[in-house]
């Protein structure tokens, strides 16, 4: 799916998502990714768990993490929600398309957001 973002300067904007990966600010990534306002990395431990989201905790300064779970959303496990809340981070899980669009909107609002995204498989 092609998105038409209106990016603020120097920010990582999700431009495209699909079954094989993502295009973020002109760079194509195969497989799952973690997108931060200032950088995008491959999501090596692509699981919605505290261990899988360790790079988000290490990044610091993130207030909300959006988890894109492929074609279908699912609720966030209560223990994961509580652990992230203890670090001052809110979390929402949804389908990947919704997570990409929501991330771009929040980024345009200059929010401290990150996205953990699984391809549409």
List descriptors.
about 120 residues, alpha/beta, Hypothetical Protein Mth938, Chain: A, five-stranded mixed β-sheet, 8 strands, globular
Concise summary:
The protein is α/β, with parallel strands linked by helices and 121 residues long. The chain contains three helices and eight strands; from the N terminus they run βββββαβαβαβ.
Q: In whole angstroms, how far apart are the ends?
A: 13 Å
Q: How many separate domains?
A: 1
* CATH homologous superfamily label: MTH938-like
* Structure summary, number of beta strands: 8
CATH topology, what is it called?
Answer: Hypothetical Protein Mth938, Chain: A
* Binned strand content: 25-35%
Uncertain segments are none
Helicity, as a percent range: 10-25%
Task: Classify the secondary structure makeup into a structural class.
Answer: alpha/beta
Average predicted confidence as pLDDT = 92
Helices and strands, in order, run as EEEEEHEHEHE
What sort of overall outline do the alpha carbons produce when their principal axes are compared?
globular
CATH architecture verdict: 3-Layer(aba) Sandwich
